[in-house]
Design brief:
By secondary structure, this protein is of the alpha+beta class. It is built from six helices and four strands, in the order H-H-H-E-H-E-E-H-E-H.
Length: 183
């Protein structure tokens, strides 16, 4: 029985690993990060094939392996999403609709953020829409500050897959980092 429980723990750990890798890989695919997606896919499938080949032949003799396999899959999804949120790769745009556009825009510009303002007409009258492009790690802070400055503001957060920039282009990465970032 101890051997079965040990095998169950190994199955759970392996499924957590391969599903977590798969979750992160899917997000890398969506972001267009081909190199990183390639590497993650290799390890994801290598782990998966190893686990599946060990479990399939033993399912009738040890039905507990099915439970371990399913539990590892569920935990892998949860843990993979948590890891991805902590890594927070990529950029997002925060669109803020507010009646206090000048005040918010200046506050964010004072922090060095690039803010683009548009005049608009909301349900209850004139508003300004602010566009702010950020790294994903900065988004929560900016939204919290916007809500502090204008508790009635409305915001939308969008992922950015590609964007042109008025900034000076940085030198291209070379070596393995450049390969991982190529689309």
């Amino acid at each position: 029985m101890l051997t079965v429980l040990l095998h169950c723990l190994l199955i759970i750990a392996a499924r957590i690993a391969d599903v977590s890798i798969g979750t992160i890989r899917t997000i890398m695919v969506v972001q267009g990060r081909r190199g990183l997606s390639f590497i993650l896919a290799f390890f994801e499938v290598a782990i998966w094939v190893t686990v599946v080949s060990g479990v399939i032949g033993q399912v009738r003799a040890q039905p507990l392996y099915v439970v371990a396999y399913a539990l590892g899959f569920a935990l892998g999804n949860y843990i993979g999403m948590t890891i991805e949120q902590q890594i927070a790769l990529g950029r997002q745009v925060v669109r803020i609709m507010t009646r206090r556009g000048m005040e918010l825009a200046q506050a964010f510009r004072d922090q060095g953020l690039r803010v683009t303002q548009f005049d608009g007409l909301g349900r209850d009258g004139p508003v300004q829409e602010l566009f702010i492009e950020l790294g994903r790690r900065e988004v929560r802070r900016v939204v919290a500050e916007a809500r502090t400055l204008d508790p009635l503001c409305y915001y939308i957060i969008d992922d950015i897959r590609a964007a042109s920039s008025a900034r000076e282009p940085l030198g291209e990465d070379t070596g393995w980092r450049g390969v991982l970032k190529r689309k």
